[in-house]
């Protein structure tokens, strides 16, 4: 018959194990209550004290955890007790005492992988990455068949910026793991997403979904990756599935809203964002994205309120920077150009750095030293902001860096009044190589309105022309019209900007028109193709056209800059540069752009789905075209 003390010890041990099972199940609060109730009968039991240390550590009470672990060690200096003490001290910010505790654990149990892992964590915190890696690899040597240890090493390597090494270790871990393991797959997909290998990330994410078809997180993660790949319909299916499998989460709803925006369904996006905001009202990312949507819906005041809230709530963060940039687009759309250009500068913290990091930024003040002017963002932006170069030339000699496709066109334009004196004086040079010597400062073309305090759009004069345009001859009578119905599909929200070709049927039904395609590499049936070449080639084609019809692409800017008539098919809540504050009304009651007086916008009147929203402006443009052609 067991002695009473032995029986009591067995009961105590069983109750400790039961409490630790609750801890493993995530109920640390109840585990702590049960363990604490045992203290009265066993105040100095080291197993109980260590269990209390583990539980309070899980509760975030690292001071109590260190105290309990220290008491346990006084009664029984086991290696695992030193591990808990060291990790608790590290959580309290006491890295060196934590290292000392873990050093004891490693010395007393050199073959214990858990001691090596904990020691590595503390060495990494102390900045001793090489020593930390040594300990992690030693843990793997001790248990070479344990996939989880390789997962820990891979995460460490990723934190050290060694993504390639991390992926190789994860591949090894996959070979050791169970065939239905998803944890390692999730880490692979996450890392591949971070390094831009989205196709590989999507493949692995699809594997996870096939292993766990009823897991809402698997569907949600897959949907997010599909969205990043531009596979919006598939992303919507995955995210909708995730929402059907469990209670909606703010993150999944927010991702679904972004997908709906990309699909052009602004009303559904608004509903999803509203629900996400209800679930997580203080989330700055949700507020930021919802503000972008409200701007597209034409609710600019409400959008600006959200952007201001983000700027105030998380100052100095990337989200606040993006909110400030988005606020700039609203200010510019409203004609508040002075404040708009100031906020527009926030984009520099978001975009890739300008070329030549060795050169300091130009502040816009007069100087005799040459300034390197660089483009950024899209080709349309670059063409638009070329008009500020003469203002810069009034203050400094300039070396203008252009993409290859624009160099010949700008060079051919040098005899226009806009450029003539500057080219002749030698104050303006053009290059495609930012490494050119001689410049001592740099600036972005898009920063010139701010740097030079040129608020409103400057007076317009054509500033681009192809030399070959001067000899263009018309080969056929009647109207020749160029059409660009779509931009690059890589633009995330292209479905609202571009027009599906069948929707242009009313336009193409107007008789006696020779149509010319202005989309490189794409020629619809019955259209004259756009010749291969640079933008000077395209400008030559435009010079022989009576009219250019285009959506919001670089073609609108090019045609506007050379002064050709442009009819712009403009989406609801469109880009700031085509907004009403940047327009004037002319004698016939129609509107023209302040940026390019030859540009006449035809606006969507509703934020409906694209196939519906385009009907009205396409019909209005077709009617105007019939009047122009006499058809």
Automatic annotation (TrEMBL):
Alphabetical list of Pfam families matching this protein: TPR_16
PROSITE patterns named among the record's database cross-references: TPR
Keywords for this protein: Repeat, TPR repeat
UniProt TPR repeat ranges: 250-283
SMART domains attached to this UniProt entry: TPR
Source taxon at top rank: Bacteria
Protein name as catalogued: Tetratricopeptide repeat protein
Keyword Repeat tagged: yes
């Amino acid at each position: 018959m067991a002695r009473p003390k032995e029986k009591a010890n067995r009961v105590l041990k069983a109750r400790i194990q039961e409490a630790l099972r609750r801890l493993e199940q995530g109920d640390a609060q109840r585990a702590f209550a049960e363990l604490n109730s045992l203290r009265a009968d066993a105040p100095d039991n080291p197993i109980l004290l260590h269990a209390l240390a583990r539980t309070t550590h899980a509760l975030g009470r690292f001071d109590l955890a260190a105290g309990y672990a220290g008491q346990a060690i006084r009664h029984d200096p086991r290696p695992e007790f030193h591990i808990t003490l060291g990790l608790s001290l590290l959580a309290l910010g006491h890295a060196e005492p934590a290292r000392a505790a873990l050093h004891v654990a490693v010395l007393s149990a050199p073959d214990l992988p858990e001691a090596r892992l904990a020691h590595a964590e503390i060495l990494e915190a102390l900045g001793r990455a090489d020593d930390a890696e040594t300990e992690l690899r030693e843990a793997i040597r001790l248990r070479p068949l344990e996939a989880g240890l390789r997962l820990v090493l891979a995460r460490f390597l990723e934190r050290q910026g060694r993504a390639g090494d991390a992926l190789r270790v994860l591949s090894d871990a996959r070979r050791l793991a169970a065939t239905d393991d998803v944890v390692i797959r999730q880490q692979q997909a996450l890392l591949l997403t971070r390094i831009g290998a989205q196709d590989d990330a999507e493949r692995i994410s699809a594997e996870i979904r096939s292993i766990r078809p009823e897991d809402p997180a698997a569907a949600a993660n897959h949907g997010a990756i599909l969205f990043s790949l531009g596979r919006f319909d598939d992303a919507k299916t995955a995210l909708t599935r995730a929402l059907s499998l469990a209670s909606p989460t703010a993150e999944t709803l927010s991702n679904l809203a972004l997908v709906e925006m990309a699909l052009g369904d602004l009303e559904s996006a608004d509903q999803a964002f509203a629900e996400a905001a209800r679930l997580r009202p203080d989330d700055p990312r949700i507020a930021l994205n919802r503000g972008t949507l409200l701007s597209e819906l034409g609710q600019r005041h409400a959008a600006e309120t959200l952007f201001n809230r983000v700027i105030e709530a998380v100052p100095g963060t990337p989200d606040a920077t993006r909110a400030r940039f988005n606020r700039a687009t609203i200010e510019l759309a409203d004609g508040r150009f002075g404040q708009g250009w100031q906020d527009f500068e926030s984009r520099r913290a978001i975009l890739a750095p300008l070329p030549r990091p060795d050169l300091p930024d130009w502040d816009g003040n007069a100087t005799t030293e040459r300034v390197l002017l660089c483009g950024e963002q899209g080709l349309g932006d670059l063409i638009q902001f070329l008009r500020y170069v003469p203002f810069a030339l009034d203050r400094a000699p300039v070396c203008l860096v252009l993409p290859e496709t624009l160099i010949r066109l700008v060079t051919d334009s040098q005899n226009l009044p806009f450029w003539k004196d500057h080219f002749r004086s030698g104050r303006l040079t053009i290059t495609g190589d930012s490494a050119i010597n001689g410049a001592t400062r740099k600036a972005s073309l898009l920063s010139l309105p701010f740097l030079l305090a040129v608020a409103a759009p400057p007076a317009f004069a054509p500033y681009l022309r192809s030399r070959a345009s001067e000899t263009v001859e018309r080969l056929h009578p009647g109207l020749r019209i160029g059409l660009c119905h779509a931009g690059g599909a890589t633009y995330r929200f292209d479905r609202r900007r571009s027009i599906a070709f069948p929707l242009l049927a009313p336009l193409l039904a107007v008789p006696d028109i020779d149509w010319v395609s202005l989309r490189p590499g794409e020629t619809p049936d019955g259209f004259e193709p756009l010749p291969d070449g640079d933008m000077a080639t395209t400008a030559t084609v435009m010079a022989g056209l009576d009219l250019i019809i285009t959506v919001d692409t670089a073609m609108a800017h090019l045609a506007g800059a050379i002064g050709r008539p442009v009819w712009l098919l403009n989406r609801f809540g469109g880009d700031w540069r085509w907004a009403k504050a940047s327009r004037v009304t002319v004698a016939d009651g129609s509107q023209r752009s302040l940026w390019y007086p030859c540009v006449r916008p035809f606006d969507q009147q509703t934020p409906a789905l694209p196939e519906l929203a385009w009907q009205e402006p396409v019909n209005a443009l077709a009617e105007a075209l019939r009047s122009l052609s006499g058809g």
